[in-house]
Each structure stands twice: as structure tokens, then as C-alpha cells.
Design goal:
about 425 residues, 18 helices, about 80% helix
Length: about 425
């Protein structure tokens, strides 16, 4: 039996990539939409059915976000050892199973807050592992190295759109069927996501040779060391971490602030949130074009600055339709800047990192960034009891401005547009 020449195998893989990419993006969109549904349904279930206190609701939110701090770093090593497609399918199906446990418990009148805490923690852990595998798959499904930014932008567009539709669908389903039954839709979407992932090809198998593996702690250390020694990655991740902390301080109490101090009402709150989602979609659409024209560095520097400045109106807003319009526009600009920065910095990370370290560097960035969010949320709640809500939000905006200034003075601002073939 003869085998095809390597060149022909490469052409066959290239021809399959668009189909694999479509299945991948469809599956990620479906899975993320479902996650947004349970992101609304779990708190609603806790408050409406179990009559949870404010402290219990905060603990549920912490359980859902804590895996970003606990699981992100080991996830970078695990997805280097196992097939990405296998990880995505397994996490989707496991998430669907645990999600279905909630309506089953509700049917049996066995639903309790400890059970919700446990399931929220498990779902958050599985989602963190799945996201790590999905983000690692993006550069492998790009047509070529110079198209990394476009591939990341497509991924962000799908996730942003799915998040908007998932939240809208979750709100409607909770009103019609109740929060427990709504989770069945989440489980269905996760199964569909697993089916799509099963059709994804062109994701090479990792080297599973035990002789070449090192202890997990040492492999995590390699990712951390590479990230902190590279001047561009170090400056970028410091800015991202500070931005995560600042954003958490400003947004943790945002709904409370808008409903009480600004008196937007639930309709106004929904309009501002929807505008943010649309702004995020716009940012993902224009990011590759901005990078091709101005370069990665200027786009990142301007994006961090816009993201910080766009949150200043929150500190000044008072009740009235004029401020509602201002906050809607500011929210749209803030999310547009956030997604532009998100897609661009992820591409810069991938360009700057050897392929065998990409997953670990990616997870280091997520651990330092998103892992700080639950801690910052807890800090925001504690500070709000000692000072006013506006004071806490002002502190968050100050952190954002400082992080933007630090990035502006770093080597990141001078990066060129790698999508055009220029060297960083």
C-alpha cells in the first residue's frame, strides 16, 4: 500500500480547514450561548425558588468564577497532552450532564444552595478547560500564520453574538418556562456543540510520549517564565491583569448603581447592556482592519485608553434621558474597545510564542487576568460597605487609566502589523 506524499497531505488538510473551521465556530457559538443561559438561570433559580440571601447569591457568583483562578494554569498543560477535539467534546458532554442535574433535582424537590454551589463550580471548571482547548484550536485552524488575527476576530465575533443571543434567549425562557426548565435548553446546546466539535478535523494530536513529559508544576513554570521574561508579553499581561481588576471594580456593582443612583429602570439597564454587546461585535469586526492600517501596538494602546475613558461617564451620571443616551454610547464604545484589545492581544501572544508553549502562555494570561476577577469582585463588595458605590467605581476607573498609561509607555505600543508580514 502506498501513502500520499506529504505535499498532497498538506493540500488535503488545507482544503478541509474551512469546513472544520465552520463546524468549530458553530459549536463554540452554540456552547457559549448555552453557558450564557445558565449564567442567568442559576442566579434566578437561587433567588426566586430558593430565596437566597445577597450573601448566598454572591457566593454562587464566586463559585462560578473561581475556576478561572484554580483551573486556568493546569488547563494549559492538560490541553498540551490530549487531543483538543477530545477535550472539547468531553467537556461539552460533561457540562450537559451536570446541567441536567439541576432540573432533575428541582423535579425531585431536592434542590439546595450547596448543590447549586457545587454545580456552578463544576460547570465553571469545565468551561475553563473547554475555553482553553478552543482558544488553542484557533491558530491551528487559521489558513496560515499571517491570518491569525482574522481567525481570532472571527472567534470573538461568534462568541460575542452568541453571548448576546444566549442572554436574550435565557431571559425569555426563564419568563416562559421558569429557571429550572430553562437549563434543559442549555444542555441541548452543549450536546449540539459536542456534535459540531466531533466534525472538526486538522487538529494535530500532541506528543503523548511519557518520556517527554515533565511534572505539571514544571511545565506550568515554563509558561510563566517565558511570559515574564519576554518584554512585550510581560508588559501586555501586566496591563491586562490590571485592566481585569479595574473592570471588576467598576462592573461588580454596575447594575445596582444604574438601578438606584441613576434610576435607569430595568428597561434602561437592558438597553445599556444590549448596546455593549453590539459594540463588542463591532470591535471584533473592525479589529483586523485597524491592525492592518495602524499596527498592533497603536491599536492596543488606543484600545486600552478608550476602554478606560469610556467608563468615566458612569461616575458622573444622574437620572434622566440625556445620561441614558450617554451611558448607552459609552457602553458601546467600552465593549468595542474591549473586543478590539482582546482579539489583538491574543494574536500578539500567539505571534510572540513558540507553538509548543502557546497553550501555557495563553493560560498564564487568563490566570493572571480573569483569575483576579473573583477576588476583585469580593473586594468591591467589601469596599462598598466602607465607602460609597461611586467611590469603588472611581477606584476601578483609576486602575484602568493607570494600566492604559503603563501600556502606552511599554514596548507594546511600537508593535507593527504582523498580518501584513512585518516582523514584531
Amino acid at each position: 500500500m502506498t501513502t500520499a506524499p506529504p505535499a498532497l497531505n498538506g493540500l488535503a488538510r488545507s482544503a478541509r480547514k474551512p469546513t472544520s473551521r465552520r463546524y468549530f465556530l458553530a459549536g463554540e457559538g452554540l456552547g457559549h450561548a448555552g453557558s450564557c443561559v445558565h449564567g442567568i438561570a442559576l442566579p434566578a433559580l437561587a433567588v426566586l425558588q430558593l430565596e437566597a440571601s445577597a450573601g448566598q447569591a454572591a457566593l454562587l457568583s464566586f463559585a462560578a468564577t473561581a475556576p478561572a483562578l484554580l483551573v486556568a494554569l493546569p488547563a494549559g498543560v492538560l490541553i498540551d497532552r490530549y487531543r483538543l477535539r477530545t477535550v472539547m467534546i468531553t467537556t461539552d458532554l460533561a457540562s450537559a450532564s451536570f446541567t441536567l442535574a439541576i432540573p432533575a433535582a428541582a423535579l425531585l424537590d431536592a434542590l439546595t444552595m450547596p448543590l447549586l454551589y457545587a454545580i456552578a463550580l463544576i460547570l465553571g471548571s469545565l468551561a475553563t478547560l473547554h475555553k482553553a482547548a478552543a482558544m488553542a484550536a484557533v491558530p491551528l485552524l487559521a489558513d496560515q500564520e499571517r491570518q491569525l488575527h482574522r481567525a481570532n476576530a472571527q472567534f470573538t465575533m461568534v462568541i460575542t453574538t452568541a453571548g448576546f443571543l444566549g442572554r436574550a434567549l435565557g431571559t425569555v425562557l426563564i419568563a416562559v418556562a421558569g429557571p429550572a426548565r430553562t437549563l434543559i435548553a442549555d444542555a441541548v446546546s452543549l450536546v449540539m456543540s459536542a456534535c459540531c466539535a466531533s466534525r472538526v478535523r486538522d487538529l494535530p494530536a500532541p506528543d503523548r510520549s511519557p518520556a517527554k513529559r515533565q511534572p505539571i508544576r514544571k511545565e506550568i513554570g515554563e509558561g510563566l517564565t517565558f511570559t515574564l521574561r519576554d518584554p512585550v508579553l510581560r508588559a501586555l499581561i501586566v496591563a491586562l491583569t490590571a485592566t481585569s481588576v479595574g473592570s471588576a471594580l467598576t462592573t461588580a456593582l454596575l447594575p445596582y448603581h444604574l438601578l438606584t443612583a441613576v434610576e435607569t429602570g430595568t428597561t434602561g439597564l437592558g438597553v445599556i447592556m444590549a448596546a455593549g454587546s453590539l459594540g463588542g461585535l463591532a470591535g471584533a469586526l473592525i479589529a483586523p482592519r485597524l491592525v492592518r492600517r495602524f499596527g498592533s501596538g497603536p491599536v492596543l494602546a488606543a484600545g486600552f485608553c478608550l476602554h478606560a475613558v469610556a467608563q468615566i461617564p458612569l461616575l458622573l451620571a444622574t437620572p434622566g434621558p440625556t445620561w441614558l443616551i450617554v451611558l448607552t454610547l459609552a457602553g458601546s464604545g467600552q465593549y468595542a474597545a474591549a473586543t478590539t484589545v482582546g482579539t489583538t492581544q491574543r494574536s500578539v501572544q500567539q505571534w510572540h510564542t513558540p507553538p509548543h508553549l502557546r497553550a501555557r502562555v495563553q493560560q498564564t494570561a487568563l490566570w493572571l487576568g480573569t483569575g483576579m476577577i473573583p477576588l476583585a469582585v469580593l473586594a468591591a463588595g467589601a469596599l462598598a460597605t466602607l465607602a460609597s458605590v461611586r467611590t469603588v467605581m472611581a477606584l476601578g476607573v483609576l486602575v484602568l487609566i493607570v494600566s492604559a498609561g503603563v501600556l502606552w509607555r511599554s514596548p507594546v505600543r511600537h508593535l507593527t502589523a504582523r498580518d501584513e508580514g512585518a516582523e514584531l
